[in-house]
Amino acid sequence: MSITKKSTVRSAALAVGLGLVALPALSACGSSDADSGSGGSKTVTLVSHDSWAVSKSVLAAFEKQSGYKVRVLEDGDAGQAVNKAILTKDNPQGDVFFGVDNTLLSRALDNGLFQSYEAKGSDLVMPEYRVDQDRHRVTPVDTGDICVNYDKAYFSKHKLNPPTSFDDLIKPEYKNLLVTENASASSPGLGFLLGTAAKYGDDGWQDYWKKLKANGVKVVDGWEQAYNEEFSGSAGGKKAKADRPLVVSYASSPPAEVIYADPKPTTVPTGVATGTCFRQVEYAGLLSNAENAEGGKALLDFMLTKTFQDDMPLNMFVYPVSEAAQVPPEFVKYGPQAKDPETLDPAKIADNRDDWVKSWTSLVLK
């Protein structure tokens, strides 16, 4: 998602950026941190990127049923969080890591970040999101699409059609309008890079980025800065007087602009360039050397329950992966999944990601 929020994204970070509204989900995570200690058999610690969020009542039900108190440690953008988790894998900060997505999954698995555990409910995960089936080191939790979002008011004011595809973004009429995240440090930034690699292939993506750079693309560190400080279509961007009407974000960002706005707009203020989407899947896993492995297993089981999967979309602005879950109507109306997103085989990502990022850095940042 991830992702997320996703990231992100997405979820809590997105909601705060949108309306600067305190969410019940954030209160739940905060109280868990305060009430639990530094560990112990009755505390299970979740390490995540900044976009983890769950409704207070849902988290409380899990804690009552399982007997475990949940402690949440948020570690920045997904890319940063994964890198830190790898560096601390021999003495992990927690028991479960949430938020590694398909763009970074091979890095986590190759570095031995997770131990094997097949979560209850895995049989209900949609087949297209299942990976690592021989060892079950990660559990699919959510999915979403990384896409360019656009500020409807800007394009209406300038009597300009918003872009719909990767090809559009390099046209002169969109010069100096796009902001994206650093592909070497940000999950959505990396997802956007991979989307271009999937679209244009090994021989074409670098030429595309040369043209995108020449067309004035702006690169910032992470999603929060891109979406809430640089993008003119977001609530945060409006407050910051942002001047970029195109941003790499998520297909689920427009619903958030409606749901958390106060007052609510009569129409959604942002749209999605559906021909720029890359499908993201986020996973959770039981950390190697987890102090409370049993609590970690219980938490992973919880993430695949219908209760959590139904609750997740409107908290983390991602789609559920369980066939038993229901998608909220706000998503169907304002943030449907892309019908034909770009995708890459995980093995292809694993073989090329580091080289692609290195080349991208040389092309775009230097």
UniProtKB/TrEMBL annotation:
One of its GO terms (molecular function) is thiamine pyrophosphate binding. GO terms for biological process: thiamine transport. It comes from the Bacteria. Residues 1-27 form the signal peptide. The keyword Signal applies. Keywords: Signal. InterPro entries: ThiB-like. GO terms for cellular component: outer membrane-bounded periplasmic space. Pfam families: SBP_bac_6. This is Thiamine ABC transporter substrate binding subunit. It comes from Streptomyces sp. R11.
